[in-house]
Amino acid sequence: MSEYTAVALRVDDRRAQAQMDALLEAEGIARDRNLTYSAGIFDENGAMLATGSLFENTLRCLAVDGAHRGEGLMADIVAHLVQVQLERGHTHLFLYTKCESAKFFAPLGFTEIARVGGRLVFMENRRDGFARYLRSLAPCAGDAPGAALVMNANPFTWGHAHLLRRAATENPRVVLFVLSEDRSLVPYADRLAMVRAAAAQYDNVQVVSSGSYMISAATFPSYFLKDDALVVRTHAQLDATLFTKIAAALNLTRRYVGEEPFSATTSAYNDALADVLPQAGIELVVVPRAEAGGTAISASHVRRLIHDGRMEDIRPLVPESTYAYLTGEPGQNAVRRIMAADDVIHH
Fold this sequence. Notes:
Layout: E1 6-8, H1 14-26, E2 37-42, E3 48-55, E4 58-64, H2 73-87, E5 94-97, E6 111-116, E7 120-124, H3 129-136, E8 146-151, H4 158-170, E9 174-178, H5 188-199, E10 205-209, H6 229-250, E11 252-258, H7 264-276, E12 283-287, E13 291-292, E14 295-296, H8 299-307, H9 320-327, H10 332-340
């Protein structure tokens, strides 16, 4: 450890924020706009020597001034950030770094999971975390090649049902991953229940939770937060790369996605899947959107109608089970959250 101490950076401290930007730029790192906490190490003259930041359960934007490498500053900044995470209740941590810097984090307790080209390495603080996750999915593996679906179902619509029916009728088995992070307007437990109800009619569909390794705050925060194109593309490629590892473990050779005419973020994600999956021998099947009244069905549109108090107008867009949930007591919490939200269109 060095002789310096890491301190939190206030968002209104313009000088410190400018120093952070300058240090990141000097080290060839693009500042991530999805940051909830930043820290810095300064010398006795107030010059920033190292910095690092947090978003949810990740460490990112880690940098040390080139003139001070080898002084233990990275260990200091990581130790500080890990302590803050523990105080926030986060114990399973993920880290992003440049490819050439990844080797410095192994002694600090982080293990590489995947990398995206020459831009990014994704690591975690559990040596067998990803392997343990794959083992938890073992009941979903099979000898016959299978297909995958990944849904947020916020809420579950006839569009989701159309995608599910297509995959279930074209493949001997389907693994349907429901995004498990509780960051959507409809709570995870309710989304999972809606998907399970819809999938119950198919004997060849298994519904499972996505965990931290699929479209989560760790792998793809831009799915939930608007961000610049480079971050969206990089995280989409990371998530797609991780999926190829999951698919290999479960013998999944197809992935179904809905055509995306509305969301630039989801469209970029589909583009990343189209780039990455075929290289791993996985076919990407893009299914045209189901329509109602000549308009493509989307969960965003359903949320907009709920937000505007037009509950009857959602009836042609969702299965009866979803409508019953949203108009009954179990769904009132979700309805209140949707009606109070400023932005119901973005995921």
